[in-house]
Structure formats: C-alpha cells, structure tokens
C-alpha cells in the first residue's frame, strides 16, 4: 500500500467509524462486524458490541454469523458448477429432476435462480409455524409448498422467493447425489479455503459463534427454528474474512469460468422484455450510478449485507447478531464513503 493509499484508508477508517458509532453505541448489547476491502485487501475490519450478552463476551472480527439469504449466492454458484460439469442446464425444466412438481414442465431452473418462477414463497404461508421447529428432509420441505397455487406464470414477474432456492438446493442433491451441505462444503468452502464457513447448526460446537438476539423492549435470545427450514435459501454460516475469500474466488474464476460468471451477473429479463435488477443469487443495482453486486440476509437473530463494486474492486460486508440492527443501509453508506475516497 503506498503512502497515498495509507492516507486514504485512514480517512476512510475515521469516516466509517463515525457512521458505525451512531448505530452500535451500546457496547453491552448485540453488535456487528464490518469489513471493507480494496483490491482484495482489507482496509477496515472492526467488531462492535457483544458476541454473547449472557457471558459478556465481546465481539471480534473473526466471529461466525448466520448469514441468512446471502446463502443464495452459494446455491446459485453450486448450480453453475453442476452446469459446467454437464450435469444440468439452467434452461432445463424442473420436471426433469422432480417429475411430480406441479407446472414443472413450464418452470426452468433459470426461473428459480431469478425469482421469476411464480412458486408460492413458503416463508409467507400462514402455516409456516407448523413446520418451523421440525427437521424436514428437502423433499418434505418442497412437498410443504409445491401444491400451493402459483402467484403468476413463470417469467411474468420478479418476486423475491425463498421457495425457488429451496427447490434449487433439492435439485443440487438429486443431480450430485450429495447432501446440499456436503456439496457446498466440498465444492466451494474447501476449494476457496473458507475454513470458518459451514451449514448452520444449533447443536454442534461452532468455534467463535456469535449468538443471535431479538429486541422486544429489551434483548432476548433468538427464537429457535430448525435449520432444515431455511435450507438452501438461508442456512449457511460464515465470517467476514471468509466472505472476502468468496468474493476473491468469484473475481478470479476459482470455481467457474468467466463465461459462467457473466451469466450469473446478467440482469434478468421478463417475458415481456422488461429487465429487472437480479441475476443468479445477487441483486445487480447501483450506488450513485456505479454498478454494484449486492445481497442481504435476514434470519432469526441475524442480519447481513454485502456490496461489491466491480469497477473499483471494493467489497463491503456487514454482519449483525441482532435482527434489530439491519446492516443494509449502513453497508451501502460505507460503500458510498469508500467510493468517494477512491473514485
């Protein structure tokens, strides 16, 4: 890092500190970890608040968080790995893999990836609490929502949908012959060196786990749900450092070819030709007119947000261990600060 960059990064650090201090000023409550990287190198990496309130354990930058819907990035790339291996095609209909799926002849894997399938989002069903604490197989989970009336015909609308990514996880299992958890572990985490990332578990010992909280007029431990329910739409855990490794692996084509990455980061198009701002597992938006790749996550007790700015090679990632503190707005604010310092 040259002298100019050091000066820049010190300015960025002070500015980011002032933004985060306004939100995470309670050192005795749940906290967060934020990392900002430029050209793959961290220029900001700090922790705030407590990783565990009951045991009075301070948060540290290498704590492990549930990342919620940021899981969708891994599911999408998992599908693309299988496509490169010739085991499936994103234009295949899901009936090829799940023959009894209603309307499955009209729903393509592409529709699932882009949230345009019209399948009912199971997290919005009134009966969701009847299964929330049950350990379901992927087939049982798909069976829970597959017979619900569809919201629209495939490709007609973009409507963010967890069910689609559950079906993708099930297809990964059918095609690969491996549990989703094992497939992601072996084909992504191990290859990228994401040694502190995993499928979430409440029972297993997870070193440096951050515990999740709600605020209900005071902090309480998060509600427990079976982690078989968010599944391929939201059940992974990671650290900010591992997520930077992930971002670098995407940039450097460690897992899939550049042509495949181009497909992942192509904005979707509806049947009527209208474009929308989602690719495969990422929102494709912009900040102050500069294109971004971003995604957030929300799961009981945790919220997450990551923003990548390809033109400047800037990555901003924030994890919170209370679903009362969404890092979405702050992460985008930090991205603006960083852009202004380096653009």
TrEMBL record:
<feature type="domain" description="Beta-lactamase-related">
    <location>
        <begin position="25"/>
        <end position="323"/>
    </location>
</feature>
<dbReference type="InterPro" id="IPR012338">
    <property type="entry name" value="Beta-lactam/transpept-like"/>
</dbReference>
<keyword id="KW-0378">Hydrolase</keyword>
<dbReference type="Pfam" id="PF00144">
    <property type="entry name" value="Beta-lactamase"/>
</dbReference>
<protein>
    <submittedName>
        <fullName>Serine hydrolase domain-containing protein</fullName>
        <ecNumber>3.1.1.103</ecNumber>
    </submittedName>
</protein>
<dbReference type="GO" id="GO:0016787">
    <property type="term" value="F:hydrolase activity"/>
</dbReference>
<keyword id="KW-0472">Membrane</keyword>
<dbReference type="InterPro" id="IPR001466">
    <property type="entry name" value="Beta-lactam-related"/>
</dbReference>
<dbReference type="GO" id="GO:0016020">
    <property type="term" value="C:membrane"/>
</dbReference>
<dbReference type="InterPro" id="IPR050491">
    <property type="entry name" value="AmpC-like"/>
</dbReference>
